[in-house]
Design goal:
236 residues; 9 helices; globular; disordered C terminus
Length: 236
């Protein structure tokens, strides 16, 4: 099924502004924005867009992929325990990963999992082809290439940590999800990344509501994506 890339791009742009608002105000994301659902949507979008038939037929695929990667990079660089919420599962995740680190470990693991499927490699190939075309497609390709480098760096770091742990623990034939997340969580201490302060330079959220085209888009977004944005911040 075809998607309207421009609609998703606009939606991700608005959600990014909500994330920046949460970060700068120090508000807890619970009841406002489900970052786990947002990262899942971004990874699913990237998986879908990476398909040859989709990328070649959906206008704006490159720009949408770039914005989806950018959202993931934002969460990686600036997501903290107030934003990256995830409830501990019944299997006892908190015995090996603290509640504060659980959401972050899960995000990094999911990025690595999608990378292992070759999704980022496919998107890199598409971006390279678009770069040769120049113009708007070339600009989108440059942005996509830059953001892919960030998420690929994260994925490679996590994958290497899991491989090393597997080699060091040959008797663990089928490690449990809590154990894998504990490995991922431990690996994050040695991950060094660009601070990406540029991703915090979003326009301030509007203080007024009900006026302007942007407010209409925001209301439509919330109506259609209640699973990701449950309650509007009063600052909107």
């Amino acid at each position: 099924m075809a998607i309207e890339a421009s609609h998703y791009t606009a939606a991700l742009g608005i959600l990014r502004r909500v994330l920046v608002w949460l970060k700068t105000t120090g508000r807890d994301a619970e009841g406002i924005l489900d970052a786990s659902a947002l990262s899942n949507v971004c990874l699913r979008l990237l998986t879908y867009i990476s398909k040859d038939l989709v990328y070649g037929s959906v206008e704006g695929s490159g720009l949408l992929a770039a914005h989806a990667c950018e959202c993931l990079t934002w969460l990686v660089a600036h997501g903290d325990s107030k934003i990256l919420k995830m409830s501990a599962s019944a299997q006892g995740m908190e015995k090996v990963v603290t509640r504060d680190q659980l959401g972050r470990a899960f995000l990094f693991h999911e990025i690595a999992r999608v990378s292992e499927q070759g999704i980022f490699t496919k998107l890199s190939s598409h971006a390279a082809a678009d770069a040769a075309k120049g113009g708007g497609m070339g600009e989108a390709a440059a942005l996509l290439t830059n953001e892919l480098a960030s998420v690929t760096f994260v994925a490679d770091h996590v994958t290497a940590a899991i491989i090393k742990w597997t080699e060091d623990n040959p008797n663990e034939v089928s490690p449990s999800p809590p154990m894998i997340l504990s490995v991922v969580s431990a690996s994050l201490a040695s991950l060094t990344m660009d601070a990406r302060t540029d991703l915090l330079n979003e326009p301030a959220l509007r203080a007024s509501a009900g006026r302007g085209e942007e407010d209409k888009v925001l209301r439509m977004l919330v109506e259609g994506y209640r699973g990701s944005v449950r309650v509007l911040p009063t600052a909107l």
